[in-house]
UniProtKB/TrEMBL annotation:
This is GTP cyclohydrolase 1. Residues 22-193 form the GTP cyclohydrolase I domain. GO terms for cellular component: cytoplasm. Zn(2+) binds at C87, H90, C158. It catalyses: GTP + H2O = 7,8-dihydroneopterin 3'-triphosphate + formate + H(+). Pathway: Cofactor biosynthesis; 7,8-dihydroneopterin triphosphate biosynthesis; 7,8-dihydroneopterin triphosphate from GTP: step 1/1. One of its GO terms (molecular function) is zinc ion binding.
């Protein structure tokens, strides 16, 4: 039997108040001495409000799995999943890519859902270390695979555009669970396939 089983529905409970956000953005810009009364900047507060709302609001999705009827027991890996989030310390974006893999147990996952899980945890004020761990922990809890691996590589504009201004630097974080943590050969295979271990 190949029926799908939804594990959990992830829902957006409350939506953003764009009018309040636009007013706050207008006051914020004014406090920094930026006038928003010219033709080119008049809509800037509204654009800021919509932009941050998009960055900080996850889309709902249903986590659907399928029986592992064929007994597939090798690594499943989605590489180069786009990541965009906002640093919780400076509210500046960080962008990069995630590599998410798992060793199936009794169920396998629709591949697009790996990207959905990353997006879900990225759409909030974040730190990269927590984003990496939340993604891995959630997949382990919901899918109950034999192992999970998540690697995130990202450029943080709070570090590249301000402060030390380390342009081009990237931060790499990883979380390994189950077999991918305990077995060196499996961990090596996962890291080699992500391209992180060169």
């Amino acid at each position: 039997m190949t029926a799908t089983v939804p594990l959990q529905v992830v829902e957006d409970v409350t939506g953003p108040d764009l009018e309040a956000a636009e007013r706050a953005a207008r006051e914020f810009l004014a406090a920094l001495g930026i006038m928003v009364d010219s033709e080119g900047t008049r809509e800037t507060p509204a654009r800021m409000a919509r932009g941050y709302a998009e960055l900080l609001t996850a889309r709902p999705f249903q986590m659907t799995t399928f029986p592992n009827d064929e007994g597939y027991d090798e690594l499943v890996l989605a590489r180069d999943i786009p990541v965009r989030s906002v640093c919780q310390h400076h509210m500046l974006p960080f962008v990069g890519k995630a590599h998410v893999g798992y060793l199936p147990g009794t169920r396998i996952l629709g591949l697009s859902k790996l990207a959905r899980v990353v997006e879900h945890f990225a759409c909030r004020p974040q730190v990269q270390e927590r984003l990496t761990k939340q993604t891995a922990d959630w997949l382990a809890e919901q899918l109950q695979p034999r192992g999970v691996g998540v690697v995130v590589e990202a450029e943080h504009t709070c570090m590249t555009l301000r402060g030390v201004q380390a342009t081009g630097s990237r931060t790499v974080t990883s979380t390994m669970l189950g077999v991918l943590r305990d077995d060196a050969a499996s961990r090596h295979e996962f890291l080699a396939l992500t391209g992180v271990q060169r």
